[in-house]
Amino acid sequence: MSAVPAGNTESFVKACALGDLGEDTPHRVEIEGVPISVVRTGGEVFAVHDICSHANVSLSEGEVEDCMIECWLHGSMFDLRTGQPSGPPASRPIPVYPVKIEGDGPGAAVLVSVTQES
To answer: What is the pTM of this model?
Structure first.
């Protein structure tokens, strides 16, 4: 999972259940008015801002490969760990949010904090 700063559990909100996430399939949620793409890949769960920094397009409609999410419109790729684009046309990173998993199995809660960026 993404790193979670100690002592900040009160800012986490349930985004979905772990069982709602297919491997390498972005899942769009909205938390406190912020569009988020939650992605399970390689045994980890990541949360990034769902809107491409190059165009006003939902990243959750794109594909995930090698810990990168692709914008379906122009092909911009963003690292799920850092939000950094891999190259043009996007030149600005997208926000990455801390993730915490509570519980076990498919019913485990995926919690995301939108009050702080990783």
So the answer is: 0.88
